[in-house]
Write the structure tokens for this entry.
Amino acid sequence: MVGRALAATAVVWPAIRIAFGWVHRAAHLLGQDAGDGEQVRRRLGGLLGAMTGHRDQAGPLASGVDHFVRVSRSYWPGLFACYDTADLPRTNNDLEQAFGSHRYHERRASGRKGASPSLVLRGSVKVLAGLATRAGEVTGEQLSGADRAAWRAKRAELDERRERRTDRRRFRTEPDAYLRGLETQLNQSRLRTYEKKRAGSRPRRWAAAVAGSARNCTRR
């Protein structure tokens, strides 16, 4: 049975061998002993250029080669930072495990079956706070030494994100009422602008009238 299967797929094995060789070479270039970022960038760029130039050798896998090159190019700006920065992991596996651990502990503490929706809004602080408290106890002295200006800026950023999320929910549930509210706000802002212009033009008209009266008195 294996022999018949190999014989039936014999025509595609040369293309698979070529495409696999390219992908294996890319994995080797991105390996643990790859060198600094500039060297890896230059070598991988050469390999991707060769794959593009010889894509026809991959036969029916040519479209897969194009996809591999395109995705590699899309990751290009941040693909080589781990080679220039010490202790920066090459994959996000540890980060994904940290997120999963936080969701697990949050479900245990809250009784939810799924992750809390607030992670979308406040995940940048909730995840860090959860990881920090599991790593060790945080004392009041440590909290009191925090940068209050940075804390206020972060609170303002989170409040802004919450307001945008609230606006999106209002638009989804009652789009007509939401649009009427926006129209009312726009009309009110226009009215205030108009009133300010009128208030600013009154002193100028009064000064012009006084100057005109003074000129008439002078002529008489």
